[in-house]
Amino acid sequence: MGWSYDFYLDAINRLTLVGNFAANSFSRDQIGGGFEYSLNDLFQLRAGYKYEVGLEDDEATEPLYTGISAGASLNVPLSKEDKKRTFGIDYAYRQTKLFDGTHNFSVRISL
Question: Which of 27, 29, 104, 105 registers the highest number of CB atoms within 10 A of its CB?
Fold first, then answer.
C-alpha cells in the first residue's frame, strides 16, 4: 500500500512526498518513505529510506536492501517544439548489506 502527493511550489518547482507499507507473507513487513524535488522537469533530486519491521541485530537475517537511497536525474530536451522528447541521465544509490552500497547509472531517450 502506498501514497504520494505533489506539492507545486510555483510554476517550475515541485516536491513529491511518498510513503509505502508492504505486508509480506514470507518475510518481514517493510515501511518506506521518500521525496523527489523537480526543477522544471529538467532536474530531479530524490532521497528515500526503507525499514524492515522487527529487524534484529542478527546479520544472517538482515535484508540485502535496507536503509538510505538517493538519486538524481538530468533531462535535456531534444527539440524546442516538443518538450517531451528528451535525453536523460540518471544516477541512483542504494545502501546494501554487502559491498557498501550499489551505484546505478542509466541513460534514457524519450521520443
Answer: 29
